[in-house]
Amino acid sequence: MNNNNAFKTGYYLEETHLESGGFEYMEVDDIGGELDLKSSRWNPYSFLHGHCDLFAKVLNQKFGYPILYAYGDNGCLAHAYCIVDVNGKQCYVDVRGICSDWDEFISEFDDWLPIDEDGNLAPTISSENTLEYHDELADDRMDIEYIAEVIIDAQPDYYTVKCA
């Protein structure tokens, strides 16, 4: 259930896209910056499903946001994201931007998460990353992190909060 009073930035404010079902619209050709994503196999959507851990790492490096990991019943990572306090309320940050509504934030991953007795998504949340990284893929990870940095730098208001 979406909370209309939730704090949101970034792609969460793109209501026309949200109503069209899913976040496929994030597969843009070029978001600016130094990298033309048209020539890359990675795009913003890749950081929602596939490389969320690396996007969270870059958010942590740029802004100091703590990283959390949501695991399903089988122990597989469903999503990595950051948290930030906005006016005393915990908010969740990933490639989509910032959102204070946990249900809206986590519902994108409902296919991979267990349901509690009340019918709510109930991932196991941890600050521990259990993913195994292989040395032979280090160059790919550096490229992916660079693309994440370009996305964040091109749209910094999506990922930061300016307090009055």
Order of helices and strands: HHEEEEHEH
Q: What structural class should be given to the helix and strand makeup?
A: alpha+beta
Cross-sheet strand order for the largest sheet: 4-3-2-1-5
Specify the oligomeric state. single chain
Poorly predicted runs: 16-35
By DSSP (H or I, 4+ residues per run), the number of helices equals: 4
Q: What is the helix fraction of residues, given as a range?
A: 10-25%
**Roughly what is the average pLDDT, rounded to an integer?**
78
Largest sheet: 5 strands, antiparallel
Rg measurement, Å: 16 Å
Q: How many domain units?
A: 1
- The amount of beta strand, in percent, is 15-25%
Number of strands: 5
Tell me, briefly, the overall form: globular
Distance between the termini: 29 Å
Give a short summary of the structure:
The radius of gyration is 16 Å and the shape is globular. The protein is an alpha+beta fold and 164 residues long. The protein has 4 helices and 5 strands; from the N terminus they run H-H-E-E-E-E-H-E-H.
Draw up the topology in text.
Blueprint lengths: L14 H5 L32 H12 L3 E5 L5 E10 L2 E6 L2 E3 L2 H5 L17 E3 L11 H17 L10
Antiparallel strand pairs: 1-2, 1-5, 2-3, 3-4
Helix pairs in contact: 2-4
Would you mind describing this structure in some detail?
This protein is an alpha+beta fold and 164 residues long. The chain has one domain (10-155). 24% of the residues lie in helices and 16% in strands. The protein contains four helices and five strands. It has helices spanning 15-19, 52-63, 102-106, 138-154; strands spanning 67-71, 77-86, 89-94, 97-99, 124-126. It has a five-stranded antiparallel β-sheet. Strand 3 (89-94) and strand 4 (97-99) form a beta hairpin.
